[in-house]
């Protein structure tokens, strides 16, 4: 039986109400999240949610290609991890810079 890897990357979808604001600082949000959650990589989606969501949606990337070329599935992410990432996104203030 093959070993399942942990999720390593998330795609973050911003709420429709903050789509334009986040679009202007996508790299800063990704950097902010990488500092808060160093074991993960983050990509900020260029699209808004399909519905009028009022919160950030972290989407874990659950599959990856092994060096052998096989498609593998990751272990499910704990719900608390997704919640903490969503809360960190909501706390992000584009006007504040990290040093």
Question: What can you see in these coordinates?
Answer:
It is a single chain. The chain has helices spanning 19-23, 26-36, 79-91; strands at residues 9-13, 41-44, 57-60, 63-65, 71-73. The protein is an alpha+beta fold and 99 residues long. The chain has one domain. A three-stranded mixed sheet has the order 2-1-3. A two-stranded antiparallel sheet has the order 4-5. The longest helix is centred in the last third of the chain and has 13 residues, at 79-91.
Write the layout of secondary structure elements.
Layout: E1 9-13, H1 19-23, H2 26-36, E2 41-44, E3 57-60, E4 63-65, E5 71-73, H3 79-91
Parallel strand pairs: 1-2
Antiparallel strand pairs: 1-3, 4-5
């Amino acid at each position: 039986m093959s070993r399942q890897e942990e999720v390593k990357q998330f795609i973050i979808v911003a709420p429709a109400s903050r789509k334009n604001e986040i679009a202007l600082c996508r790299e800063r949000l990704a950097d902010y999240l990488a500092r808060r959650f160093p074991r993960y990589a983050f990509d900020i989606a260029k699209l808004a949610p399909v519905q009028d969501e009022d919160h950030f949606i972290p989407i874990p990337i659950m599959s990856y290609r092994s060096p052998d070329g096989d498609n593998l599935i990751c272990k499910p992410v704990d719900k608390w991890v997704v919640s903490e990432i969503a809360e960190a996104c909501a706390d992000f203030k584009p006007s504040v810079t990290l040093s």
